[in-house]
Structure formats: C-alpha cells, structure tokens
Amino acid sequence: MRVPKRVAVIGAGSMGSQAMWRLAARGAEVIGYDRYAPGHDRGAAGGESRIFRAAHLGESGYIPLLRLADGLWEQLQAETGRSLRRRSGCLVMGETVSPSMRLLLSVSTAHRLDHEVLDRDDFARRYPQHRLPEGHTAVLDRMGGVIRPEASVQAAANRAEQLGARLHRYTPVREVARASGGGVRIVTDHGTDHVDAAVVTVGPWINTLLPDLPRAVDVRRVICSWHVPTRHDWFADGALPFVRSTPHDCFGLPSPDGLSVKIGLSHARHLPVPEPERLDRTVRPEELATFHELIRELMPDLNPDPIRMSAYMEGYTESGNPLVGHLPGEDDIIVMAGFSGSGFKISPAMGEIAADLALDGATAHPVDFLAPAGVGAA
Ligand SMILES: Cc1cc2nc3c(=O)[nH]c(=O)nc-3n(C[C@H](O)[C@H](O)[C@H](O)COP(=O)(O)OP(=O)(O)OC[C@H]3O[C@@H](n4cnc5c(N)ncnc54)[C@H](O)[C@@H]3O)c2cc1C
C-alpha cells in the first residue's frame, strides 16, 4: 500500500484552510497549525465580506485561477452544505482613460467574461446609490458577488478535518526548515514535527516566520468602515458590491444583514504594520476623513457617521502579485503570501495548487508568473 505523504500546512487562514481541504481530499496526511483558530478576525480574513469578481483590474494571468476558484467555491458549498458565496454581480468603476480600466475592458473582452459596459443614463437609473463622475466608466461584472470570509475559512478547515486532517489550534509555528535527513522540520512551543512537505500560508505574519523571502512583502493595516444609508430604499433594487479604481481607490459591499455598507480603501492609503502581533486595532477619528470625502462625492445617501470601524492586515508586494510556489532552493517548502488585497476570491484555487506542489512537486495550473523569486529568476 502507498504511504500517504505527510504535509504540514502552517497557518489555517484564507489560503491554508483551503490547502488543508484540497490536500485531505487527495488522501494526504495533513497536519495544520494555526496561531489562533479558523475563522478569527486578526489577520487578512476578517470583516464579514469579500468581493468575488472575474473582471480583475490586474493582468490576465488571473483569469484561469478565477475560473478554477469559481468551480471550487461551488464544490466547497456543496460538500459542506454552507452558503458561502452569493453571485449578485459586481460594479467596477473608474476613470475611462486610466490604464487599469482600459486593461479591465480589454481582458474582459478577450476572455469573453460576462460583463456589460453601462452608459451614464442607464447607470444612473439602475444604480442610484452611486454617483459616476464625468469621464468615468462603469462596468457590471456578472460573475461577481460576495463571499463570507470567516465562514469560508471555517468551512474549508472543518471539511478538511472531516476528511482526516489534524489541526493544532492556538499553536504558532516558530521555525520551518529543511530537515537534515530529508523532508521538513516544524518547530512549535510543544516540540518538533517532521513532515515530507510544508505549505506556509501565514498571511501578514510571513516576515516573522520567513524573514528572507526572495520578494518583499510589505504588511499594512487595512481599515474598513460601515455606514447606514439615509434613504430607506437604498437596498430596494438590490445593491451590489463595487470597486472604484483610479482615482478613488476604494471598494464597498452591502453588509449581508442589509443594514449598512462596508467601505474599504486600497493599498496606497494604508499604514505599515511593523509587528503583526501588535496591530493597532483602534481606529482614530482623524482616519475617518477619507471615508467622509468618498461618501460625500460618490455615495451621498450614506450617513457619514460610521456604526463600526475595524482594522485588519494584509501583505502587499511591489507588483501586486503574490508569491506562490517553492521557496528557491527548497523542494519541499511551498510559500503562498503577499496577496495584496485581492487574494480571497482565488483562495480555493491556491489550495488546489498547494496540493499539486506538495504532492506532485509541480502544478499544471498557470502560476509561473507568481513564482516567489519573480518571473525569469533562477
Ligand atoms: C479588509 C480587507 C478586505 C479585503 N477585501 C478583499 C476582497 O474584497 N476580495 C478579495 O479577493 N480579497 C480581499 N482581501 C484580501 C484577502 O482577504 C487576502 O488576500 C487573504 O485573506 C490573504 O490570506 P492569507 O491566507 O495570506 O492570510 P490570513 O487569512 O490572514 O491567514 C494567515 C493565517 O496564518 C496564521 N498564522 C500566522 N502566523 C502563524 C504561525 N507562525 N504559525 C501558525 N499559524 C500562523 C494566522 O493565525 C492566520 O490564520 C481583503 C483583505 C483585507 C484585509
């Protein structure tokens, strides 16, 4: 009988919980570790909602990964009986001449993504919640929708446990390194484990565990703010999640209880996080100013006084592309980090790819452009 491969997954958050699920589904002996427990809100996965969208503002390399993720989201829901994602469509708006909007339109057309470019009058009639400044374009991405992040992380981790995975909760890994006799050594406060391969998915804590990454991951504090509409009919015809690219650089989602709208800001507006374990989770009144400006200009029917503000963390790379693959020079250590504010939607695809890399040493899915050392690097 073939002995199953023993694979450690370090960090059972967005990517790690999915990696545990896909590895366990393929018969591996999976040992997971998390600093806290699946579904916590101290890292990159908190805040109640995430946008799924096919019309990505970045390069077209993401399209096959989004398609893979799309099918796996359906599969995870079917296997767990949980409602984790709702397809509603997603609005993407931005300056018509901006490179990101041009790229979005050319990629959407080239890949035949189900989308609609809205003319200004049509937009104003269908989406009165939003103002579209002169010179801006709005696109409806029909594949888009909303994912529930905390519930998804729990569902994937619990499904992995049902399939035989073991998870050490509240167990931070202190060290991961090649073992002298082959395989990988995992050190925790309780002792040392040996495994055949390790998948490192510690999100914003990546620089603490692996300080010498081939590409830098800049960890930032991401704040979100929830606002109640002043008009009772704000949600009447179904409000959609939205992304505003240049120059507003923000996103928003109607909260799942239909009470408020969550607004978040894009990378440039976030403060650095020197120590993830000391994230400043208190949001100061002066940090509200940007939200006030965005509301006044773009969604004047929201009350500018928030009912909730929260702080999370995310790792960003210079290119915006995460590091996905074997660590250079290591056949058995796989890293997935630096998802730069847009990783949640593709997390099941990352789980599948982690399983390929850990069990087969390679993947047929197109992720060379995300290689940890960068494309073309040795
Ligand atoms: C506010 C906000 C909004 C976002 N909106 C969107 C969106 O709309 N759509 C989208 O697609 N993406 C979005 N993103 C990005 C997406 O959520 C992240 O890219 C994704 O969650 C990153 O997942 P991760 O697995 O790298 O990190 P995490 O989900 O944070 O997982 C890391 C896990 O590792 C554990 N850990 C850390 N250190 C150790 C250790 N030493 N040992 C063991 N365990 C450890 C942590 O406890 C944690 O559970 C958003 C991010 C934020 C912060």
Characterize this entry briefly.
The protein contains eight helices and 21 strands. The protein is of the alpha+beta class. Bound molecules: flavin-adenine dinucleotide (FAD).
Strand percentage, roughly? 25-35%
CATH superfamily of the largest domain: FAD/NAD(P)-binding domain
Q: Helix segment count?
A: 8
User: What about the largest sheet?
Assistant: 9 strands, mixed
CATH fold annotation of the largest domain: FAD/NAD(P)-binding domain
Broad structural category: alpha+beta
Count all strands and give the number. 21
CATH domain class of the largest domain:
Alpha Beta
Helix content: 10-25%
Mean pLDDT: 94
Note the main attributes of this structure.
single chain; 378 residues; alpha+beta; FAD/NAD(P)-binding domain; D-Amino Acid Oxidase, Chain A, domain 2; nine-stranded mixed beta sheet; six-stranded mixed beta sheet; 8 helices; globular; binds flavin-adenine dinucleotide
Task: Describe the fold and architecture.
It is globular and about 65 Å long. With 378 residues, it is an alpha+beta fold. The protein folds into 2 domains: 163 residues, FAD/NAD(P)-binding domain, CATH 3.50.50; 159 residues, D-Amino Acid Oxidase, Chain A, domain 2. The longest helix has 19 residues. 24% of the residues lie in helices and 27% in strands. The model has no long low-confidence stretch (mean pLDDT 94). The strands form 4 sheets. Strands 5, 6, 7, 14, 15, 16, 17, 18 and 19 form a 9-stranded mixed sheet that branches. Strands 9-2-1-13-21-20 form a 6-stranded mixed sheet, with helices on one face. Bound molecules: flavin-adenine dinucleotide.
